[in-house]
Design goal:
Number of helices: 3
Order of helices and strands: HHHEEE
Helix content: 40-55%
Number of domains: 1
Number of strands: 3
Strand order of the largest sheet: 1-2-3
Mean pLDDT: 87
Structural class: alpha+beta
Radius of gyration: 28 Å
Distance between the termini: 96 Å
Length: 146
């Protein structure tokens, strides 16, 4: 018994300055670890928002490819998909213009753009490289008249 107590006393006396080193190491490493974890969340969020923007463009292109579709219907469908995803401040562009004027067999493209700052998760844009804009594109061929 006495040997164990004596050994414990010697162990604490051998490294008297070591007691606070772990605290300092944690104080230095923890903020870095948290930044890496939150950066992973932010990048994952950016990828999710990019996929949702692509989906909205695909929804709009599908409507634009239908016979008799109008630019208003395409924009309404894209904005509804973006609203479902919670993406705000988006713009919609249809090329070559009004889908009702595009002859069957030609491609119609829909481009959706939204600023990332309005759709971010944590706001770490100053600490890490993130996209300025989320862009989704989709093209489909105009369907023939029924």
């Amino acid at each position: 018994m006495k040997f164990a107590q004596h050994h414990r006393v010697l162990a604490t006396r051998a490294h008297p300055r070591r007691r606070g080193v772990e605290t300092i190491e944690v104080a230095i490493a923890l903020p870095l670890l948290l930044i890496v974890i939150f950066a992973g969340f932010e990048y994952g969020w950016a990828i999710l928002r990019s996929i949702q923007t692509d989906h909205a463009a695909r929804e709009g292109a599908r409507v634009a490819a239908l016979h008799g579709a109008t630019a208003g219907e395409v924009e309404a469908r894209v904005l509804a998909a973006l609203d479902d995803a919670g993406i705000v401040d988006a713009t919609v562009a249809i090329e070559p213009g009004d889908p009702g004027l595009v002859p069957p067999g030609l491609p119609i493209s829909v481009r959706v753009a939204a600023p990332y700052r309005s759709n971010r998760l944590l706001g770490l844009a100053n600490l890490m490289p993130l996209p300025q804009e989320l862009v989704g594109r989709a093209s489909m061929v105009k369907e023939p008249d029924p």
